[in-house]
């Protein structure tokens, strides 16, 4: 319904387009409210023991919809007669309205040939305005119901959440641009934003921070799952105790399902160290479960550890922040030293460390926001504090990811560059050979012959002016080169044969190098090392250079075959 809309002609003007954007926001709010109302009505109809009217069901649906936006509800029907606040927001339930307003703002800027384009500011204001109008009407409807809304919470965080989702939708429709900055921003910041390296670093920081938060949530969910399996019997007992019939069990199951993201955040806070509060007088951390908890009967709360000091099994929860720190380091190095880039294109140590530190800051900020949204009061007195403390959880996430992410990113960067440097990192004098220049490196490094009369590097010049081989680390030996396949692999120098060429002599080079040497003859060499069976060798690589070689090396200069006198 938010995508398909009636066509508007360009002549209807800007006012009609703005009204259409306002309608989009109202439709998005109505879809979210309607989905929750249908679910509540289905549970109300299927419950045989319901003592409320259909008006009470509608009031409950309105209260749940406002609670999904972060509004704090006031429950008037309590055993003590004192109204109790309900501020624990089911995070999975909040995904629906946030997604709807995001799509409404994004689709309002979709260009269409049948209607004029709408500015981003106009789309944002009208979509948010239409959504908040429906929210105000729902708040007025539920004012005298069993779940009324606390008025200040309608502005913060409810209106802020709606505005943030709409702004994200407008930014998505514009292509997620970075900039331009406002005119009052410093000139240095404008210049930095214009550089591609700055934008690349900003993208890497955002990805590493998001990956760190994701790993923390995944690790927290894993801790909760393991704890539920460990305490399966208490969780089952609590589930059966809360629900007498199948309709009640479905309601309890759905409530536990929408609270699963909250439990994941609580598990992440537990692994980080600060833990979470179960009332004003109880705190659960890996070190200890202290105080007297105010635990209402609920299956997810049956997974909390046993009271008392923590054991080695509880301390193993620190693997969650360790994994988050390693993830931040890994995503930082993926941008600092990509696998496809040359070593000189890698970031410096300072840039890598700064990007990892900023990723840790983003991870801490995201964790703090989620911790603030995952907790809240469930009543008065003992239940006034329920869930993790947001600033402690965010600070712990920042410390863990910074202490592990920054040095981890530097170490991973050094390892990647070491792998890319090849043997040049550990072997002095070695020349790394690339795939394009392998043959050139062999000819220049193995033969070492640049011109007639010059000795190769690592060779000494004898009294007759000829080069003699010596042991040297420079240059490749003839047995290090894989020869051609398909030739006579058995052909090669015979050990002890004085006509066999020595390693490093001009005769051990290809024909091009031996032609450059000319008629220089090599002295007798000691026994040559036989090549490995899998190294193909061409016979002409070991032919001696004599006067007849100059005539037969080139086909155009060769004489008639079989007509020359061998004695000549």
The number of E-state strands comes to 10
**Through-space gap between termini:** 100 Å
Which band does the percent of strand residues land in? 5-15%
What is the number of helices?
17
Query: Uncertain spans, ≥5 residues at pLDDT below 50?
Result: 422-528, 533-543, 548-553
Shape: flat
- What is the residue-mean pLDDT, rounded to a whole number? 77
Largest sheet: 5 strands, antiparallel
Write out the strand line-up for the largest beta sheet, numbering strands in chain order.
7-6-5-4-8
Task: Give me the Rg, rounded.
Answer: 38 Å
Helix content: 40-55%
Secondary structure class reads: mainly alpha
In sequence order, what are the helices and strands, one letter per element? Answer: HHEEHHEHHHHHHEEEEHHHEHHEEHH
Detailed description of the structure:
With 568 residues, this protein is mainly α. The protein contains 17 helices and 10 strands. It has helices at residues 13-46, 54-68, 91-108, 120-141, 152-173, 187-194, 196-230, 232-242, 246-258, 260-272, 312-315, 319-336, 349-374, 390-421, 438-447, 511-517, 547-552, and strands at residues 73-75, 84-86, 147-149, 276-278, 282-284, 288-291, 308-309, 386-387, 459-461, 467-469. α1 (13-46) packs antiparallel against α3, α7 (196-230) crosses α10 (260-272) and α12 (319-336) crosses α14 (390-421). The longest helix has 35 residues, at 196-230. The radius of gyration is 38 Å and the shape is flat. 33% of the residues are buried.
